[in-house]
Amino acid sequence: MSIPIYVTQPVLPELKEFIPYLEQIWEKNILTNGGPLHQQLEQELCDYLGVDYISLFNNGTIALITALQALSLKKGEVITTPYTFLATAHAIVWNNLTPVFVDIDPITSNIDPKKVEQAITDATVAILPVHCYGIPCDVEALQALATKHKLKLVYDTAHAFGVDYHSQSLLNYGDLSTISFHATKVFSTFEGGAIVCHSADMKQRIDQLKNFGIVDETTVNDISLNGKLSEVHAALGLLQLKTIDQTLQARAQVDHCYRELLAGVEGIRCIERSGIEKDNYAYFPIVISEPYPLSRDELFEKLKQHNIFARKYFYPLMTELSVYEQYQSDTPNAKLLSGQVLCLPMYPTLSIDQIQRITQLITDKD
Ligand code: T4K
Questions:
Q1: How far is the CA of 147 from the centre of ligand 1 (A)?
Q2: Mean pLDDT within 57-80
Q3: Beta carbon of 61 within 6 Å of any ligand 1 atom
Q4: Which of 11, 24, 127, 243 is the residue whose CA sits 20 to 30 A from 299?
Q5: What is the CATH number of the domain that holds 306?
Q6: Could you identify the atom of ligand 1 that is nearest to the CA of residue 63?
Q7: pTM check: above 0.70
């Protein structure tokens, strides 16, 4: 049997490149709580991404929870998508807010602003869209709604590291954006994440919130979490930034290769990523429907039998999980896509041979 191919694989620098960073940490004896590598990574990320303020976190979920807390929302409803990873909805409930799930646009897989508008009530306090697979939401329409109804707009940008849209980083849209630097993401710090904000005051508030709400030795302003990123994690980020452009180029090639090899296969739609000025090619989702002879689940199993581990991101929908039973809503587009989507392996070191092997299994329709 051939070696397994997973949906993703982290890109690690050579171990020998990591050692000098460890030596530096050992020498300085600062392991966490905003040490020198942490500060350096915040600065380098601001420069690379073209954002003014970034606050690093120990993962994208704590960043999301803290972003909602930072806005001091009054108790109420947060409109979001059911077509996402658990963390998006969990962050809402964790803040004692109520998630209201609205439907997506079936083509982009992102929340549909028209459905958002229909769901706004007197209880709505915020909108939490996700740039799913790194594909930008309709940011103009969502901002117009947020402004018109005086709502906060927080983007879950977990998938969209490095994406530029309309001449700027996608992270600059909304009141706050959160990112994930998990091992499975385009840019990784083993575990990690961040919040991007637009003022020094907000950055200071977020930095306090991720450190138990501590203001100074005797003052604590909030009851909050420990969301700090350690020096070892920051070191990997600094190394990953050195090669991020090559990483993105290699991902682009994988994306183009898949599209070429799957073009014209009836019943297979590669989700479009057009109109993105700078893309990160975070995922390669395909949508399987008739007349393709296999269902999504059958194709998933077939690939698995050949040691290829695609993933059903995002199935089941949040609204289909028993833990979200009380937040049911009718989202037919999301339901359909969730039953038809399959994310194929996507990472920069995936070879042409491997891509051909995967697409061959898809085009051999038995
Ligand atoms: N918002 C959104 C929209 C998100 O998608 C996520 C996370 C978050 C927020 C929260 O961010 P974090 O708190 O995670 O920073 C994965 C990731 O754990 C999760 O980060 C990600 N989204 C989600 C979409 O996918 P799983 O359970 O599918 O991961 P897992 O462990 O099955 O990994 C997938 C494959 O990757 C494995 O089959 C093999 C490969 N892999 C994985 C790891 C962890 C490696 O080769 N090396 C590794 O170290 O959730």
A1: 33
A2: 97
A3: yes
A4: 11
A5: 3.90.1150.10
A6: 13
A7: yes
- How far apart are alpha carbons 157 and 51 in whole angstroms? 14
9 lies in some domain: no
The answer on pLDDT for 1 being more than 90 is no
Residues 187 and 295 in one domain: no
Query: Quick one: which atom of ligand 1 is closest to the CA of 182?
Result: 15
pLDDT tens for residues 192-228?
Answer: 999 999 999 999 999 999 999 999 999 999 999 999 9
pLDDT at site 129: 98
Distance 148 CA to ligand 1 centre (A): 36
Tens-digit pLDDT profile for residues 235-246: 999 999 999 999
User: Which structural domain range is residue 341 located in?
Assistant: 244-364
Q: CA 354, CA 356: separation in Å to the nearest integer?
A: 5
| Cα 28 from Cα 22, distance rounded (Å) | 10
How confident is residue 291, by pLDDT bands cut at 50, 70 and 90? very high
- State the closest ligand 1 atom to the C-alpha of 181, by its place in the atom list counted from 1: 15
Within this chain, do residues 209 and 314 fall inside the same structural domain, yes or no? no
Check pLDDT > 80 for residue 154: yes
Nearest to 283 by CA among 347, 363, 340, 334: 347
Evaluate: CB of 48 within 6 angstroms of ligand 1: no
Strands 5-6 and 176-180: unpaired
Ligand 1 atom nearest to 180, measured from its CA:
15
